[in-house]
Amino acid sequence: MTRVWKWNRPVTVREVLEDLQQERSIAYTTVMTVMDNLYQKGWVRREAEGRAYRYAAVSTRAAYAAALMNEAWQRSDNQAAALVAFFGMMSPEQRDALGDAMRVIQLPAEEPRELPAPPEGAEGAEESEGAEEAAEAGEEQGSPEPAQDSGAPSAPGAAAELPESEGGAAEAGGGR
To answer: Sign of torsion, CA 165 167 170 175?
Structure first.
């Protein structure tokens, strides 16, 4: 998974093989088996391209890490104590990254700006009233509320605004 996440694009078994062979000797069939296992388990999706498949990650590394943390936290008997212990293990850099993340998810939603109403009897007053009614109708329809307990960051684009080392962009590293 590290290679698939690192490149952040669909990859072939051959590409993964060539990258891995820079570190150690490995057989094509081994990489193909691992990629197929990842597909069978739902970690990657694949599309046929000629005689080969291109594999792409189903979720980002940051979303996966967030889901793992959420799962561990949910299993705790004392969630507050678990958080205190977790934060206590953080390095100063990790605490800074946490502060950055908290600022990202607490950004206020941008409110639509209202234009001042023209004075009574002024030209365009009728048009303004129609625009207000249309805006109110749009507010009544509204947009559906986002799911709150998805295991992924709750703020849209939150991971994109984080530093690259904290899961904001394609990230290299160990792990599957």
So the answer is: positive
